[in-house]
Request: fold
Amino acid sequence: MEPKLTSPSVVREVLASLGIRPLKRLGQNFLVDFNLRERIVAGLELAPGERVVEIGPGLGAITQGLLERGGDVHAIEIDHALAAHLRSFFGTGLQVHEGDALEMDLGALLGRSGKLVGNLPYYISTPLIAAVLEARPSVAVLMVQSEVAERLKAPPGSSERGALTLLREYAADVEPWARAGPSQFYPPPQVSSQVVRLHMRPSTLDLPWAVIRPVVAVAFRFRRKTLLRALREGLGLGPGDAERALRAAGIDPQRRGETLSLEEFGQLAASLGERGEVAGADGAGDAPI
Ligand code: SAM
Reply:
């Protein structure tokens, strides 16, 4: 029988045998709780042979559960030593893609109806979630720091709303799935975590992702500023153009991004789109989330 990769002693032994010290800069906090691992895997409702993409498999704690259920697992790991360990531990039953998940074509790996899972490295959880929402797995089960989970769930009017809240509202419903404390990881992180389940669904807005994303990104990049200033600085619009676009969308130019609903962002994106302002703005499409 394979050693259980959620056992704290096995995790320490495997790390020692590989000569690996967990790297903080890569967010390496390994899951050492079998029940939590089972809860995460159960959230995917995997059928044998079903495609599942895992971001950041690490030593393979979650991967092992996915393979036990007969998943067709594609795992993306940036750390060379961990990728080598995964290949030798699981053999040909696992497809290991070595590299940065932010640079991979998640949509291609998911195929038509793949699912996605990850105990995400904290330092890039926000851009990774944005990439997941864009790639549209049928279901995603993600472990993230509690602050990010709260942002994903933040209701209208909450000061915790951010670009990620709007992009999530655009693409998916979110379901709280589990909570995790530092002792459930090795080494323990300094923050608490939550597992969320994202159920992708058609957007309520009749606008493509490529149009809504840059507008949301710009509004929250300058979240302490009014939308008038944010559009001027983020999209390089003249004061008259920014004000006209906001007024045409029925939005007071003095409001801030966090007060807008997804529908209002949709009206703003459409108004900017009609004026050709989003497509024409340098780098707006790649603005960080
Ligand atoms: N899934 C394992 C677990 O639950 O024990 C490990 C989770 S650990 C929080 C995050 C993992 O993501 C580490 O294995 C780390 O090396 C990997 N990682 C960090 N940055 C990455 C990136 N940009 N692309 C892919 N994997 C990354």
About this structure: The chain has a mean pLDDT of 93.
